[in-house]
Amino acid sequence: MQPTIKLEGADELRKYLKKASDDHVKKVKAEVYATALEIRDQAILNLKALEAWDTGHLATTVVVDRTNNGLGSEIGSTAPYAPYVEHGAKPHFPPPDALEDWARRHGFDSAWPICLAISKRGIKAQPFLFPAFLSHVNEFFDRLKGIFK
User: Can you give the pTM of this predicted structure?
Assistant: First the structure.
């Protein structure tokens, strides 16, 4: 399940924006997108600071998509293993093929020892995206308030 953040007051904001001038709407859309890009950039910096950094591939897959006709943005990774880095995982036996390249880059002859360790201990969460969001959310709301004053 993907984590979702719900903005309280979003319905009121939508109603206001329907009545607002085109200039206000353009400014809000620009602010939403600019903040999404800032969050993406912070997520990439967070990845670099984590032990999760290996090849850098995960960082290249962090993307921003505009939603709701530009009034919203989704920020996430297209890498299939991104949720395991962000949220960790309970003990399970992963497919060895998925870890072969990583194991060889880290001096293992096979992914089996890694798979066994994951099956016993799971994977520790190393959040990079949610902390990036938290680092920009208050500033975003302050800038929105400035647009509507």
Answer: 0.84
